[in-house]
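Entry 12.
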Amino acid sequence: MRISPPIRRCLAVAGAGALALGLAGCATSYAPILDPQGPVALGQRDIMFRAFGIMMIVVLPVFVLAAIFVWRYRASNAKARFEPEWESNGIDALTWIVPALIWATLAYHVWVYTHAFDPYKPLDPYVKPLEVQAVAQDWKWLFIYPEEGIASVNEIAFPAGRPVTFRITSDTVMNSFFIPALGSQIYAMAGMETRLNLLADRPGAFRGRNTQYSGDGFPDQHFAALSMTAEDFDAWVAKAKASGEGLDAAAYEALAKPSSKHPVTYYATVEPGLFGHIIARYDGAMAMTAMDHGGAAAE
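Predicted 3D structure (C-alpha cells):
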C-alpha cells in the first residue's frame, strides 16, 4: 500500500510531536540521577550513559536495517530478489565479534566503576567525614549524630563539600537507604551494619527514601536530605540541641513503634551507644531491648 506524501508528512509531524511530549516529561526533578549533585551520582550517571551508548552500537543498526529491509523487499519492488541460499561469512563473523567486544567493554567499565565507587571506600582520605548513624524503622528513618550528640527523624543535614559516612542498620525488616541525587543505595538489615560514603557538591535539598518494600507504610517512608553551608549546618545542630527532647532507651522504644508519615523530630541528646544497642538486639539467639544494655558503650 502506497502512502501519499501529505499523509507521510502528517505522520512525521505527529511522531515528532509525540516524541517531544514524551521528552518533556523527563524533568530532572523526577529523575535526580540525571542531575547528580555529588561525585558518586555523577560517576553512576556517566557509566549509565556510557553503557547506553555502547549498546547502541548493536541496537541502532538493527532498527536501521529493519527499515531498509522493509523498504527494499516490499511487494511492489520488482528488483528485489529472493535468495534463500545466500550467505556471508563476513557478516556472520561481524555478528559474533561485535557483541563480544561490546560485552568485554561493558565488563571492563563495570569492574572499574564498581571498585571506584565502592560504598565503603572513603571519598577523600585527607578530610575527616561527618559520621551519621541511620536506623530504618517502621516506617521512618532515625539519624544519629554521635559526635554532635543529637538525632533527628526523617530529616538529615550535612555540610556541602564534606564527605559523609553513613553507618546503616535496621530495627525492622530489610530496608534500602537511597538518596538518588547523591548516588548509591545500600541495604539496611537488622543485626548488621552496612556503610555508605556520599558527598554533596553544593547546598541543596534532596529526597531520600527506602526503596525496599517494607509493609503498609512503605510509600511514605522518605526523608529530607539537606546539604548546606558549614554555618547553616552549625545552626541546624543548634536548633536540634534547643529542642529539649532526649532520646534515651524509653524514648527510643516509643519511637520504634510502627508509624507512618512521622513528622520531622529533633532530639537534643542521645543515649550513648544507642546505635550499637539497636544492632545487638538481633545478635545471636537473644532479642534484647536498648534498656537491657544499660547504656554500655558500643562502636
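Annotation: The chain has six helices and 13 strands. The chain has a mean pLDDT of 86.
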